[in-house]
C-alpha cells in the first residue's frame, strides 16, 4: 500500500511489551514508566491476527520490539505464528541482548531472520551505568549466540551522548574493520526518558561522522530501498556504519513503516502521539474488516514529516519503551 505521499508501506514494528529488564538513561527514568495493565497488552494470538490483516495490505517485514521483547515469555512461539503468515518475508527483533544467549537458537529455528542489539559502551562499568544495572558479559554472550544461530547481519545500535560514551565512537566504528557487524549511530532523541535529554548531551550526526571520517574515508553504500539509516563503509572493511539522524536530517521521506504499541495502538508516526486503538476492533468481533479499515486509516493519515524540533511538541510524547523505537 502507498500512503498519501506515495511512500510504500511494507514494514510494521510491533512492541510486544512495555516492560524492560534494564533502565537505560536515554530511554526511561530510573523508576521506570507507568506500566500498561496486563489485560491491555495484546496477546500473541491478537498480534498474529493483526499481522495477517496487514500482510493482506502489503506488509512484508515485521520487527518485534519493546520494552525488552525477550522479557516476555514465548517470543519464539509468536515468531513461528508470524512466519506462517502468507506474504511475510522478513522477521527481525530489536533487543538489549541480556537474555539472547539462551534464546538465539530457538528464535532462529522459529523463523527469526535477524537481530538489532542495543549496545552503548564496551566498558563493563560504563555499560552498567548507562543501563542502570546491566551486565555486559550477558550481551556479549547474546551476540555470540546470535552469530552462531545465523541471526545476521548483526546490527549494533549505539546512541552517542556527550560526556557518557562519545569517547567510544571511534571504537565502535573501528569494529566494522574486522567484523561484519552493522554499527548504527542513532541521534539521541528527546523522547521517552525526556528528563535525561539535553542539548549539551545530544550529538548531531554530522559531528559523529566527522570523527569517524578521521579514521579513514567513508564510502557510501546503498543497502536497501527504504529505511532511516544512511550507510557507509571503510575501504576493505567487513562491516558497515549506519547513521540514523532523526533530528538533523529528516528521515521521513523514506518512511515505510507502521508501529503498534504493546497495548494495541496503531501509531502512524514515531514523533506524534496520534494513535488509533485497534483493541476494540480486535476484541469485539471475529471479522477482520474493521481491523483492515483502521490499518488503512493509519496509513492514510501518516504525516509527511515530524516537528520534533518544536519544544512544545515534545511534552506530549509517549515513552519509547511503549512505542518500541
Ligand atoms: N529493549 C530493546 C533495545 O533496547 O534494543 C528494544 C526497545 S528500545 C526502545 C529500541 C531502540 O530505541 C534501542 O535501539 C534504543 O537504543 C533506542 N532508543 C531508546 N530511547 C532512545 C532515545 N531517547 N534516543 C535515541 N534512541 C533511543
Ligand atoms: Fe529497555 Fe531498550 Fe529502553 Fe534500554 S532502550 S530501557 S533496554 S527498552
Polypeptide structure, described:
The chain has 325 residues and is an alpha/beta fold. It is 29% helix and 16% strand. A 12-stranded mixed β-sheet has the order 7-8-9-6-5-4-3-2-1-10-11-12. Residues 311-316 have low confidence and may be disordered. The longest helix is centred in the N-terminal third of the chain and has 13 residues, at 44-56. The radius of gyration is 19 Å and the shape is globular. It contains 11 helices and 12 strands. Iron/sulfur cluster (SF4) binds at residues 20, 22-24, 27-28, 66-68, 96, 118, 320-321.
Instruction: Identify the bound ligands.
Output: S-adenosylmethionine, iron/sulfur cluster
Distance between the termini: 22 Å
Identify the strand order in the major beta sheet: 7-8-9-6-5-4-3-2-1-10-11-12
Q: Into which percent range does the helicity of residues fall? A: 25-40%
What structural category do the secondary elements indicate?
alpha/beta
How much of the residues is beta strand, in percent? 15-25%
Helix and strand sequence: EHEHEHEHHEHEHEEEEEEHHHH
Task: Sum up the overall morphology in one term.
Answer: globular
Largest sheet composition: 12 strands, mixed
Low-pLDDT sequence parts: 311-316
Calculate Rg over CA atoms. 19 Å
Topology, number of strands: 12
Separate helix tally: 11
What do the pLDDT scores average to?
89
Q: Please identify the oligomeric state.
A: single chain
